[in-house]
Amino acid sequence: MNVHEYQAKELLKEHGIAIPAGHAALTVEEAVEGAKKLPGPLYVVKAQIHAGGRGKGKFKELPEDAKGGVRLAFSLDEVESHAKEMLGNTLVTIQTGDAGKQVNRLYVTDGVDIESEYYLAMLVDRATGRVAMVASTEGGMDIEDVAHETPEKITTITIDPAQGFMPHHARSVAFALGLSGDLNKQCQKLAKQLYDAFTASDCDMLEINPLVETKPDADGNASLLVLDTKMSFDSNALYRHPAIEAMRDETEEDPAEVEASEYDLAYIKLDGNIGCMVNGAGLAMATMDIIKLNGAFPANFLDVGGGATTEKVTAAFKIILKDPAVEGILVNIFGGIMKCDIIANGVVQAAKDVNLQVPLVVRLEGTNVEAGKEILANSGLAIVPADDLGDAARKIVAEVKKAA
Ligand code: ADP
Ligand code: MG
């Protein structure tokens, strides 16, 4: 699950991390009120969407030369005019895809006098089973280019979670960012705080870009500040963090995935044309693999779970069919706890309810399989039965080709 920048910053603050003051806003008035609480004279108005690249983003509804989704404002009037232009409009960035994302929330924050911008991120590295901390001196809006063109400017430090974050990790991070003196110390402290925030909230990913060094103040002191952050969390661990779960913004998520989660279905939209309904995550993965082996692509991952009811199967069917790319459906059920006749009833009911127009191949195996097959055969619907997984995949691919 992802959260907005302002929410992630609230979480980091709880770990003692220095964040510039700021206020979230849902309306133009709230944006101006938020700015009034800040010292000024420089404010930054930031679009809150679950995607990066906002600074260089473009609003669909605004002229080509209009400013992007992160804007400096030098007065309250300017905060107001930026908020008016941004709220309700669609921001397209390199991370949103062409459709862009509608801006429904803003964050108004203190403007910071920046000396330099760094990059610091943490993620779960599945290959090593460790936490990878990624640091670069080349922070800011072009980090993707840095990764492609000068990967040597990016340093990765891995932390064994069993051992935990050690002082040498902190020193390595500060060294990778080329910091010395007091800034080096600040960085070491920050790296530890970030690691603690990361593990304490079961993060998948925590990215600070940019982490900035401020211009020195009158006494010559500079500090490190988190100017932008992205955090995502392991959904399976959310039950341990109700406060984080409450930050979920469903308007940012794929509507089909939101609907699926209401029915407790594990659904993930993919790019292919063959809808899949399977029970069990492992079987669902195998089903997707075998579809690909037969030269087609799955339109989704969908695990209806072990104890699905007719209602759940119907809901699953409807969700699959909402995707206009779906040209055929493969149902692959192993009836263990779930009985094949229940599934068969659900499939027939759903196919009738949605007035199914695309080919449907069903493979059933396990408890009450004969009864299930009979229900399908007597349904009066053009359901193609399959004997095993390979047969099912071949049949759905052939049916879709035939229908095209
Ligand atoms: P995104 O990564 O989505 O483009 P950022 O929050 O990183 O959004 O903002 C883009 C750029 O805007 C930053 O790299 C930084 O240069 C500038 N910026 C962001 N927040 C502030 C701020 N509070 N004060 C001054 N400049 C800022
Ligand atoms: Mg950024």
Architecture overview:
InterPro entries: ATP-grasp, ATP-grasp_succ-CoA_synth-type, ATP_grasp_subdomain_1, Succ-CoA_synthase_bsu_CS, SUCC_ACL_C, Succ_CoA_ligase-like_bsu, Succinyl-CoA_synth-like. Its cofactor is Mg(2+). Mg(2+) binds at residues 209, 228. Substrate binds at residues 279, 336-338. ATP binds at residues 46, 53-55, 112, 117. It is a single chain. The chain is of the alpha+beta class and 404 residues long. It has three domains: 21-110, Dna Ligase, domain 1 (2-Layer Sandwich), CATH 3.30.1490.20; 114-245, D-amino Acid Aminotransferase, Chain A, domain 1 (2-Layer Sandwich); 254-403, 3-Layer(aba) Sandwich (Rossmann fold), CATH 3.40.50.261. It has 13 helices and 19 strands. The strands form five sheets. Strands 8, 9, 10, 11, 12 and 13 form a six-stranded antiparallel sheet that branches. A four-stranded antiparallel sheet has the order 1-7-2-4, with helices on one face. It has a four-stranded parallel sheet with strand order 15-17-18-19, sandwiched between helices. Helix 2 (28-36) runs antiparallel to helix 3 (76-86). It is elongated, with a radius of gyration of 26 Å. The two termini are 37 Å apart.
Q: Which molecules are bound in this entry? A: adenosine-5'-diphosphate, magnesium ion
Task: Report the major sheet.
Answer: 6 strands, antiparallel
- Number-wise, the strands total 19
- Structural class estimated from helices and strands: alpha+beta
> Helical stretch count?
13
Write the CATH fold name of the largest domain: Rossmann fold
Which term fits the overall shape?
Answer: elongated
| Poorly predicted spans | none
N- to C-terminal distance: 37 Å
What is the beta-strand fraction? 25-35%
The averaged pLDDT comes out at: 93
Helix content: 25-40%
Determine Rg (CA atoms, Å): 26 Å
CATH class of the largest domain: Alpha Beta
CATH evolutionary superfamily of the largest domain: Succinyl-CoA synthetase domains
Number of domains: 3
What CATH architecture of the largest domain would you give? 3-Layer(aba) Sandwich
